[in-house]
Amino acid sequence: MITGFEKIVEERIRQAQKKGEFDNLPGSGKPLKFEDDCHIMEELRLAYKILKNADCIPPEIELKKEINHMEDLLLKMDDTAEKYRSKKKLNFLIMKLNSLRNTSITHEIPQRYVSDLIEHIGPNP
């Protein structure tokens, strides 16, 4: 049994076909590309697909991009004061990312001052 709404939709589709509105669409005649989303929980697949189609990036991924950008900038810096300010910002971003994640502390990203401290102190005797 077709409802009134479905009849309206079907009629509009037929009218659009007659006008040629479906001709020469992008990807016409090419096979469909199906994404492998088996690693995503079934109840989240639709939501993730909607977010992806809207070019919406999760906050965690956005922070990771910003952290990578800050690390690239730090490699190119020579000024010590500027480097210090940038490392503070980088450590803040890492702390923010770690707080967004709901995981064990063993899976957190370490802040970046630890390697500098070890380098400054020197190797163990």
> Percent range for helical residues?
55-70%
Strand content: under 5%
Largest β sheet strand count, sense and barrel closure = none
> Average pLDDT value?
81
Radius of gyration (Å): 26 Å
Specify the number of helices.
5
Gross morphology: elongated
The helix-and-strand class reads: mainly alpha
The helix/strand series, from N terminus to C terminus, equals HHHHH
Write the topology of this structure.
Blueprint: H1 4-19, H2 42-53, H3 59-76, H4 80-100, H5 113-121
Please tell me about this protein's structure.
This protein has 125 residues and is mainly alpha-helical. The chain has a domain at 59-121. The chain has helices spanning 4-19, 42-53, 59-76, 80-100, 113-121. The longest helix is centred in the C-terminal third of the chain and has 21 residues, at 80-100. The radius of gyration is 26 Å and the shape is elongated.
Summarize the structure.
With 125 residues, the protein is mainly alpha-helical. Helix content is 61%, strand content 0%.
Essential attributes:
125 residues; mainly alpha; 0% strand
